[in-house]
């Protein structure tokens, strides 16, 4: 595709509800990243995939957060039992390789999650 | 203290002036340094990156890196109103080069 596509663009969830956020990376991009951006802050790393392998999930805030990329393309970030502190923009990025600096990470438009 | 620090701004400059955006980082293992621009409600876009001490120029933009002082800056020459955005500084480490560590960003306002 032309760029990284995320859906939905906006999601309102009641506290305690489960949500699933989708990311379609740029075709052929091996690496995929999820970041969380709170209002007025910079993005914070959540997790990194190389193809279907989740190589780093150290940034996931709690065990309520789960990410997968089963076929090495589309990825889903799932948040169980959402809490108000989960309200943020969730950004997905993809790149050809895993060394950012030798390759560029392209970001999607993000999903704005509001937990009420 | 955050690993990457930026003044939140807003930094206000008149059109045509040079805008100077600054960033400090705390980890001496930082390898590469990135400047992203983010318009309100949009995704971050890479402006440029630098990994060697000194200056790197790309059009109206110049990145400056001083590893001894743990300082990186972005100069925007001939600032335009369309440059008004939040500028995010980011770093990565040699042992986790896939991971970008961002500052909170500096909001730049270019007055016509």
Count all strands of chain A and give the number.
Answer: 11
Query: What is the percentage of strand-forming residues of chain B?
Result: over 45%
* Helix percentage range of chain A: under 10%
Count of individual helical segments of chain B: 0
Largest sheet of chain B: 6 strands, mixed
The oligomerization state is heterodimer
Sequence of secondary-structure elements of chain B: EEEEEEEEEEE
- Secondary structure tally, helices of chain A: 0
Question: What features would you describe in this structure?
Answer:
The complex is a heterodimer of chains A (116) and B (112). In chain A, 0% of the residues lie in helices and 47% in strands. Chain A is an all-beta fold and 116 residues long. The model of chain A has no long low-confidence stretch (mean pLDDT 95). By secondary structure, chain B is mainly β. In chain B, 0% of the residues lie in helices and 60% in strands. Chain B is built from no helices and eleven strands. Chain A binds chain B through residues 4, 31, 33, 35, 40-45, 48, 55-56, 59, 91, 98-101, 104-105, 107-110, and chain B through 4, 8, 31-32, 34, 42-46, 49, 51, 88, 90, 92, 96-105.
